[in-house]
Design goal:
Blueprint: E1 15-24, H1 34-39, E2 42-49, E3 56-58, H2 80-97, E4 103-107, H3 113-121, E5 125-129, H4 140-143, E6 146-149, E7 165-169, H5 178-189, E8 196-202, H6 204-209, E9 222-223, H7 226-235, E10 238-246, E11 251-258, H8 271-301, E12 306-309, H9 313-322, E13 330-332, E14 350-351, H10 356-359, E15 363-366, H11 372-381, E16 387-390
Parallel strand pairs: 4-5, 4-7, 5-6, 7-8, 12-13, 12-15, 13-14, 15-16
Antiparallel strand pairs: 1-2, 2-3, 3-9, 8-11, 10-11
Helix pairs in contact: 2-3
Length: about 400
Amino acid sequence: MVEPYCYACGAPNPRAFYTVDAVPVHSVLLMPSRDEALRYPRGRLELGFCSNCGFIQNNAFDPSLHEYSTRYEETQGFSPTFTRFAEELARGLVERYGIRGKTVLEIGCGKGEFLSLLVELGDNRGIGIDPSLIPERLPASARERILSVQDFYENHVDLTREADAVICRHTLEHIQPVQDFIQLVREGIGNRRDVLVCFEVPDVARVLEENAFWDVYYEHCSYFSLGSLGRLFREAGFELLELYRDYGDQYLILVGRVGTNGERFSGEESPKRLERMVAVFETRVQEAMDVWRERFAAWRAAGKRVVLWGGGSKGVAFLTTLGLGEEVGYVVDINPYKQGMYMPGSGHEVVSPAFLEAYRPDVVIVMNPIYTEEIQAELARLGLEPELVRVGVPA
């Protein structure tokens, strides 16, 4: 057996500290039947911590199990809260860095919502690369100005030569050889110091602090903190212009360019600091799971109707890690493409908010607290007043 090594720095044997067997290898593939959802392939999670650079990875990850296709439904664009965040981020990049009349390449562009924003806000041209890209879902106002490439970036690195800005949001965490990948981007840019890069990934420090086992899933084989993300890019030959947390401290945003003189930013923790956080998570995460199992057992004993709000990866990880079945009636999601589908692994049906008007749940589990106001407003509109329980927020 080949010993694992850190995919961010090459150091040997990242220490395993959290293991979950048999989790769905995909969280947001559309499952049109409960049977398919229950039978969907599973893999093993074994989070390993690198004491050399602070990077966290799934030591047991097998990329051959993945299926990135047009069945992949990752968009969060149906949420007004998320849309506002994306618009503010896009507008800020255009205004601060003068991205106007330029060519913007987005790696892992999903359904192209963010790329379309950049194209429209700065009168730019876009290149969108993603195997799950569906050109017909691009806004009509931007479609003619975007070159759609339904494939992986590795097969089209040459297109980087055309780019004045390279964007990559919520894609790097899906990539196993992160050091090689960032070096690939760096080589694609060459020595053009005027090319801007912007990467966005989840923040693993928050996951550790909150014992957020629902934010650990197979698709995410790579986990970053401010410190480990900054070290990865500097080692690849980038200087950092911005590095900060956003979206309720859930996401990390890095802005940089080719160079070696970038500053250090507040919050960039050392590997030693992150190692202490890993140790605390390791001792407390099982207790966090037990507390949730007890709550579900109590609700079931009391005959309460419980639903989960959020049919994405958090919901899949929450249901499968806890082994929940009949304890949860349905999963709610505002994305119409998910409604009528089933959750990979657990087989729960995904329904629209309107379904709740007849179902009348007693308890609604909010998978992402940042959407609480949105959800409260929708429940009020439906004339419902269930108990709202937010994951990651102390009871």
